Amino acid sequence: MTGQLTEPAPPAARARAGRLPRLMVGGRDVTVQAGFVTLIVVLVATAALTSDAFLTQANLTNLLKQMVTTGLLAFGMLVVILTGGIDLSVGSVVAFSGIVTAGLAGGMPIAAAMAVGVLCGIGFGLVNGTLIARFALAPFVVTLAALTTVRGLAFVYSEVPIAPEDPAFFTLGSALAGPLPVSTLIMLAVFLVGGVFLTRTPAGRAIVAIGGNAETVRLAGINVRAHVILAYTVSGACAGLAGVILASRVGIAQPSVGVAFELDAIAACVIGGASLAGGRGSVRATFGGVLVLVLINNLLNLYGVQSFWQQVLKGLIIIAVILVQRTNRVRA
Q: How far is 117 from 93, CA to CA, in rounded Å?
């Protein structure tokens, strides 16, 4: 009895056979977008069916307000991650900007105090970016040092919480424009403008390209250092704005606030498909990651799950998403 040998399938064919099905619309792969929509629908449906409080106006308004801090930090973190960097100092910057704003609110106009708070965030981002770009220091080391330094400065400024008495201080964090909080509209504006910046402007496209291959960008005549500094400055500005809005929303500023906020920001970016190696990430997908993360947090709060278990879940989500991304890259 003779056997018949068959020619093995080419590598490309074997790779295609091992891939998961892809959803194509108009020649574009929209599998990730479809997955986001499906996950969000599942989360909303689960919350609505298992908790009577989820669809109440009070909870939905609170959810929209809560996503502002994570959203602003996630956008700033995305810009930094696109360069191949990381910013671990954003939580401390939130605390410092908030407490400085609250401290100044009693002696100057509220708008001016809030502007100073945002400027503090810009300043810290500028310092981080300069140390990283000018002296070729590791972003992890620089921003880790900034995390402890800025946190210490927040306690130096005030060891106790500050609660301004001027009602105007609470306007930014609590005012509504129709059914939507003003702070949520500000966050949406940041994402819209930021999306245009990263995809439609030379500076934004350069930031994305630096994460892919910084040396190629340099050889093309683009100032890599200046764009890295810009990326960290944007992150600092977003953290400063988040700190101001958070202090206004809760009505009190504390030097201890913002611990592990950087984890939420990184988690939102990773859930949105951003690569921690740089060069790949989407503003829309990052916003989807923010929405998924906030829905999960809100659902766990409604279930009465303790906060430390929420941190455990966020860490597991980051690991799971990175593993999925790695699997997709291998199959591609």
A: 9
Residue labelled with tokens 């500000």: 186
Rounded Cα distance, 239 and 35, in Å: 29
Phi, then psi, of 297 in degrees rounded to 5: -60, -45
Reduced to 3 states (helix: H, G, I; strand: E, B; else coil), residue 265 is helix
Q: What is the DSSP string of 154-170?
A: HHHH-SS-B----GGGG
| C-alpha of 247 from chain center | 19
The burial class, CB within 10 Å (0-12 / 13-18 / 19+), for 107 is: exposed
At 1-45, the pLDDT tens digits run: 455 555 555 554 444 444 555 655 555 555 556 766 787 888 888
Q: What's the mean per-residue pLDDT of the chain?
A: 88
3-state SS, residue 176: strand
Neighbouring C-beta atoms of residue 324, cutoff 10 Å = 12
CB burial of residue 22 (10 Å; 0-12, 13-18, 19+): exposed
Q: Which residues of the chain have pLDDT under 50?
A: 1, 12-18
Cα 80 to Cα 6: distance, rounded to the nearest angstrom:
51
**Residue pair 90/265 in contact by the 8 Å Cβ criterion:** yes
Determine the Cα–Cα distance for residues 89 and 76; give it in Å rounded to an integer. Answer: 11
The three-state secondary structure class of 190 is helix
Tokens of 102: 């609250």
